[in-house]
Amino acid sequence: MVPAMALIGVFLVFPALWTLYLALTNYRLTGLSAAHPSFVGASNYSQAITGGDFAHSLVITLVYVFGSAAIGQCVLGFALAWKFREWRSRFRRVVEALVIVAWIIPSSVVAYLWIAYLQGSIGPLVESGTLDTVLGVHTNWLSQFPLLSLVIFNIWRGTAFSMLLFGAALQSIPPSYLEAAKLAGASGWQQLRDVVLPRTKGYVLTTLLLVSLWTFNDFTPYLLTGGGPSNQTEVLPVYVYQQAFQQGSLGYGAAISVVMLLINLLIALVYIRMLKERR
Amino acid sequence: MAATDSPGSPGALRSPGPKGSAGRPARPVNWAVRAVAGRVSFYFFVALVTVFFALPLTWLVLAPFEAHPTFVAGLSQPTLSNFATIFDDPGVLVSLRNSLILALATMVVVVACAAFAAYALSRVRIAGRDIMLYVLLLFSSVVSGSAAMVPLFLLVFDLHLINSLTGVILVLAGGLLPAAIFILKDFMDSVPTSYEESARVFGASPFQILRDIVSPLVRPGLAVIAVWAIVQVWGNFLIPFILLRSSSLTPGAVEIYSFYTSGGSVNLALISTFSLIYTIPVVVMYLFVQKRYGFRFHGGIKR
Asked: CB-based contact (8 Å) between B53 and chain A?
């Protein structure tokens, strides 16, 4: 038990606490303040609030999280689990395997896969990707619709988790309940609302929580777009990376990290509250 | 398929009275039409989903076998030569070796530490144990990622482990441990304590109990943790990306990124072939766990 707690303590709990201190300094990657960082109080935070970059990143991140995780992955994952629940066919396993493969492939592989997929022809020398060829258009998705592309990408990437968890949730409902509702003439929609949702609320909230947290902290957008074009996809993790490691402002990066941690905490608290209310 | 029924006909749940067909002769026809329409829209949904998920994957599957791959998935000149030439690239074998070292070493650390910790947590009653585990689990899914990259970098730097595989292994293990303990504790809880008590009666030491009684019983759990840890490390990009500097240490996940960002035109044959090679172990291990142990890892949560 001791080694595990030591590792967790040193590499998980301590960094989180240290961030709180670092955020109050002008620590830099190189130069004078790298050797002798000085205490600057809350100036990193005021810089974050008054400069527009942070607010911009925050808005983009929220769009990314709500669009791709809370709505996209959860709705599609639930739809798949619900529609497939009684489907006895070999093809069902094929479809599910496709969804799961999209989820387990390493993220740098997935990132380039989508760069190739969404490639638009820039000139006569560069051909379009598969999507443009199939649709018969000439759109450079990642530069013309960067945020939308990322949202769609992340739905593709992460729906498997919701599908698997909701699949397990639906199995926990006794089939007789649904049969009874069906005999009573309930439509599919009514069965969902009156039988399924009340009994799977815990699963739904847990899934929402985890998927939102993962997406909020997801660094994969960096692999696809590097934050560009012109900051349009600079979600908070990418913003922290660029500020801390490319601009070298470790202190400022730490301050943004603290804000991210607080938002994570807030998301978690909201869901835990909702979970408690249910009981 | 009921799911495509119209959301109309309100109150059907509340008025489940007998739907006598005597008064409404059109009813059976209506049902048949609805059933067919439901079937059709169901398969339409299946087709859409299949295309949505399969289309991006086609390139990964086809391009490595294409003599001159483009961005469009296709197979005009099938060949296996890409797999032979890819190893001419100096980074390929080195990065695969690094990935393997990182994945296996992290797996060993995680499995060993998690096994002892989960056993202790499962057998000893500590107040607030479950809450602590749950908090740590939430914490790990947040902190081990991007929100802590600055302190993790500085911590590893101060420990003089920057640009070393050891630093990456320790950071990754610390991040994976809470979830590993969480999963493993479930398995430990299902082992009856009476086995251990009778072993103790016969004079077995605590270590012998753990080795001879508990570990065989929780072997599926250990295997799941092991595979899960390997898959997580294999695909992790951020931690090695910020902690490693020299190209002789970078794992495959970072190497792929450098293939398409290091400037010049991207070698599509190289990147697609390496991507496929890098993907296969993960998929194989996933299938292995699913076949052998019958359940899927839910990204750290088993519920």
From this structure: yes
